[in-house]
Amino acid sequence: MKIKSLIFALILIAGLFSSIIFPSCNQPGQHTAGGDTLKGKITISGAFALYPLVVKCAEVFQKLHPHVTINVSAGGAGKGMTDALNKMVDLGMYSKAVSLEEQARGAWWIAIAKDAVLPTINANNPVLADLKTRGLTKQKFYDIFISGNIKTWGQAVGNTSKVDLQVFTRSDACGAADMWAKYLNNKKQEDILGLGVNGDPGVADAVRKNVEAIGYNNLGFVYEMQTRKIYQGLAVIPIDINGNGKIDPEENFYDNIDMVMKAINDGRYPSPPARDLYLVSGGKPTNKLVLNFLQWLLSDGQKFVNEAGYVTIKPEQVTAELQKLK
């Protein structure tokens, strides 16, 4: 099933804000093995980074439990946290570390997967060959996104190109911007320069339409799940992690999503911008249905994490997260 492609299209068409309800495929009155009779509704909102995974898991969980409906809507990590703390939803999707202020307001959270933010450009970028060979260092990214000292693609790669560099960033409060800013010398989202665009799909679309563009996106909006390759019209700038002016074999892992996930898992891709992804609520959930869903996500649900284009959390972390449900 073209999970990511379908989701990408749905978000764009719906204007990024509409809720999507995935009703069970089972007939009324049908029960899962063992006579399970879980029923009710779960509402979830928040981070685009988590949206594809939670949608996939919601579909599967509803097939297992025919009397359960899960309503999932995207709108950014900030919306997810706000909605959760205000009890407007059962769970918020959150793609950055929970702050001390949010904890003081009663935020409770569990990690369910990992992913990363990648620097993206147009596939027809005029210096693409140089970028793939040399990559860009953290300092170069800083001078593009934070200080603004690099204004042309020639300056970025050290050649004579006079093509202007157009930076796109996120206009909504989000984990992707927060993680990308933290990578750039522990800055904040508001420190990032550029034209603000709403949502992951918005940034990806803006970059795809502008040959001068540079942006950043979560994994699920860079790679297509059926082919595991980069979406048509996009390219990824390799990060010159060791700063030696070239992309060494151990830094060259962007051809497909499985290579990137392996690099995230073994630590070759830096963290940040790699990070854990969370589900949050205003206090520990007491609803039996919500607790059952969370327990399933951390057990059987983990088998869908890689399939949906994410990195599984390590077994010892799964154990620690399960303890939070007790």
Quick structural gist:
Strand 6, helix 8 and strand 7 (195-197) form a beta-alpha-beta unit. This protein is α/β, with parallel strands linked by helices and 326 residues long.
Report on this model:
With 326 residues, this protein is α/β, with parallel strands linked by helices. It is 33% helix and 20% strand. 47% of the residues are buried. Residues 1-34 have low confidence and may be disordered. It contains twelve helices and ten strands. The chain has helices at residues 3-14, 51-64, 77-85, 100-104, 128-134, 138-145, 153-157, 175-183, 199-209, 257-265, 288-297, 315-323; strands at residues 20-21, 39-46, 67-74, 91-94, 107-122, 166-170, 195-197, 213-218, 234-236, 274-282. It folds into two domains: 3-114 and 274-323, Periplasmic binding protein-like II (D-Maltodextrin-Binding Protein, domain 2, 3-Layer(aba) Sandwich); 116-265, D-Maltodextrin-Binding Protein, domain 2 (3-Layer(aba) Sandwich), CATH 3.40.190.10. Strands 1, 2, 3, 4, 5, 6, 7, 8, 9 and 10 form a ten-stranded mixed β-sheet that branches.
What is the percentage of strand-forming residues?
Answer: 15-25%
Percent helix range: 25-40%
Please state the average pLDDT score. 90
Total DSSP helices: 12
Order of helices and strands: HEEHEHEHEHHHEHEHEEHEHH
Oligomer: single chain
Number of DSSP strand runs: 10
Q: What is the C-alpha radius of gyration, as a whole number of Å?
A: 20 Å
* The level-1 CATH class of the largest domain: Alpha Beta
Q: Can you identify the CATH superfamily of the largest domain? A: Periplasmic binding protein-like II
**Count of discrete structural domains:** 2
Shape: elongated
CATH architecture of the largest domain: 3-Layer(aba) Sandwich
Low-pLDDT ranges: 1-34
Structural class: alpha/beta
Largest sheet: 10 strands, mixed
Stated plainly, the CATH topology of the largest domain is called D-Maltodextrin-Binding Protein, domain 2
Q: Report, as a whole number of angstroms, the end-to-end distance.
A: 35 Å
